[in-house]
Amino acid sequence: MSKIFLTDTTLRDGSHTVSHQFNPDDVMKVAAALENAGVNLIEIGHGDGLTGSTINYGFSKYSDFDLISAASSVLTKSKLTVLLIPGIGTVEDLEMVRKCGAKAVRVATHVTEADISEQHIKAAKDMGLFTVGFLMMSHMASVERVTEEALKMESYGADVVYVTDSGGAMLPKDVAAKIGSLKKNLKVPIGHHAHNNLGLAVSNSLTAIEAGATYIDGCLSGLGAGAGNTPTEMLIATFDKMGYEHDGNLYKAMDASEDVLKPIVEGKGLKLKTNSNSLMIGYAGVYSSFMLHAQRAAARFGVDARDILMELGRRKAVGGQEDWIIDVAYELAHK
Amino acid sequence: MSKIFLTDTTLRDGSHTVSHQFNPDDVMKVAAALENAGVNLIEIGHGDGLTGSTINYGFSKYSDFDLISAASSVLTKSKLTVLLIPGIGTVEDLEMVRKCGAKAVRVATHVTEADISEQHIKAAKDMGLFTVGFLMMSHMASVERVTEEALKMESYGADVVYVTDSGGAMLPKDVAAKIGSLKKNLKVPIGHHAHNNLGLAVSNSLTAIEAGATYIDGCLSGLGAGAGNTPTEMLIATFDKMGYEHDGNLYKAMDASEDVLKPIVEGKGLKLKTNSNSLMIGYAGVYSSFMLHAQRAAARFGVDARDILMELGRRKAVGGQEDWIIDVAYELAHK
Questions:
Q1: Both B265 and B293 in a single domain?
Q2: Which of A144, A182, A312, B27 has the largest CB neighbor count within 10 A?
């Protein structure tokens, strides 16, 4: 199994959720936390792509250029990427964001309209940007048609081509068929971007990987348009449990969600969609009633409650063995 | 593929979410809406099982007997079921709820302790109840051990045996292996109960069905302990899209969630976890921006916005074809 590369789009697809009101300070904090969590590509800008801030798509509070410059000032490892929809963003916009620090671009078209990405993909490659082709609403075309359009993007020079389930409408078998066909017919790596409308975002991402995808998208806590994207921290948790090679760090992704994104989102009157405590219960495989005891023991012994839960999972503790929690906390504090 | 039977546990596992404060009126409304939506078994009672209302597990506002009598008074087709954990509930309690109208019981034990279900499963069968064996925390035991314990429940007389992922800790491959082994080794039907901690509840349910399970659990809007259960309406939506045979009705399940459960839950200061509009977008496979236009056209022409979206999905409408929405609404109103 090849290494998986994570793209987090909290600051782009997630910007729909906050009506494009992220400010440069929000963006710097979230981008830094995502880099710290090992995310490979961090996407930033208006939800509808570069310079989408219009009366049609909703005005951003700050220009994409301001936000990208802010993020760029804090990133050293992760690639800063933008989304460009030909017809909304232009080659000139792309040249501008490159100067602001963008290292990559995802050129997005409707699944049957890859033709209109040619000029932008070629221009992006000429600028030295890492360039991704992004086939939106991929559920609407047949396997053959998606493959044909993906081959076009590859021929224009795309470094990666994505099957993008913009409507969250794809079943696992549909993901497997389309990703599998791209894997077979293209030379470049394949990516998958899911939405959670049918509750299948995490598993469709895993199905995509099994079928050959190596680029996968998420948002912290599943922020994102409509039902939201795949929660980045759930992707990292399931990648760990599946034994995939990746750069993500689960605890740091949870912290990015709970400590960094949550106050920003709540400050705008909204709530996160997920809860890291319940994710941790599933990850460690322990009783949910252990959480409160583990948090108390963690505070008392100065250890991480999550490490306690992981050890309880390894020991296969069951209900009634809550006394083990203190033992484990003590051992963790003294090792 | 065999027919799938849905059990909804909004009024039992979901009662954790409302701290066991459902009242008889809530229960009657939700149970009637679930029956109307084609749910086969409706589970009612304290989250921790029959007579779980104690200082340990949290007191219910109303006794299980009151809630079950209330639900029983409105049900004619769906089987009213209770959950019984030996050690919390007793055979006497079971006799009482049978008199109140329960037609089924799920006898639940830790995955390695099926032995303690013998007396209760046999007593339930003697009372003429439809009896389900429920192996909780099934992620903690090996495939061989789960199979061994399931065979015990079958030998006591269970009509169905469940692999219950109480911690939401199972990966798709784990579900496939355990359900597959039970299917191979038991004669009775197999069930699966998922939690959404890793975001895999819907897909694990589909994986269970592919591996041979025919009994699947959900809660409206994914209400339920911790990260919640599998959203019943997402199960019905994916069953439809997969072409499975089942009795569920998607629109009525969405209505049960939005029109019946939502005001009850919001009245207790909580929010639903899902949104039927975004589910509908994924189900119909259309642009999320179509929703508002479809709702306006639906109001103007007196049709269901969901039917408009379904027709737009069939016609493969794309962004920019919003004018089709009026055409479709007009046609639906005049056919």
A1: no
A2: A182
